[in-house]
Design goal:
Layout: E1 2-5, H1 10-18, E2 22-25, H2 31-40, E3 44-47, H3 50-58, E4 63-65, H4 71-82, E5 103-105, H5 107-111, H6 116-121, E6 125-127, E7 134-135, H7 141-155
Parallel strand pairs: 1-2, 1-3, 3-4
Antiparallel strand pairs: 5-6, 6-7
Helix pairs in contact: 1-4, 4-7
Length: 157
């Protein structure tokens, strides 16, 4: 399942990419470009723009319009509508910045890019092949898991 998101959905885009979903996003892309992209690449169009949603659905594009303000509510709505897996599986995760699948790297490889304390406390690391950013399941993952659990409950997924 692939998505195209409008410029108002940057935070949602990052969450979906971490969850492993392919999401094309740019805060600078025009509505008509999103419609063309969604059609050409068979992507579900995600938007907060009611006019864009109406244009897309009139052209037969599978689209989803968000009324919810909170990202966890948006994730719940989307998860329910498309039966999304709202659990992080690192084998499928994508770089939240580049949208490229992250690859596992050794602790030794990560040592060149992360703080010594991080290296001391964590054993698993992933790297984006495009931007080179290194990821690990640090202390912030407690909050990520809590948000996803709340989202699954809200969406009854």
């Amino acid at each position: 399942m692939k998505f195209a998101a409008d410029g108002m959905l940057g935070k949602l885009t990052r969450w979906l990419r971490i969850l492993g979903y392919d999401v094309k996003y740019s805060s600078k892309i025009e509505d008509q470009e999103l419609i063309v992209l969604s059609t050409k690449e068979k992507r579900i169009l995600l938007t907060r723009d009611l006019q864009l949603y109406r244009q897309a659905t009139a052209k037969g594009i599978d689209s989803f319009y968000f009324e919810a303000e909170a990202t966890d509510e948006r994730l719940a709505q989307l998860g329910k509508r498309y039966s999304l897996n709202l659990r992080i599986v690192m084998k499928k995760s994508r770089c939240p910045i580049c949208n490229v699948k992250v690859k596992p790297i050794s602790k030794e490889q990560a040592a060149l890019k992360v703080e010594p304390n991080t290296l001391k406390n964590y054993d698993e690391f992933w790297k984006c092949p495009k931007c080179g950013k290194i990821y690990w399941q640090g202390a912030h993952w407690k909050g990520i898991r809590k948000t996803l659990k709340k989202t699954r409950i809200a969406g009854r997924i």
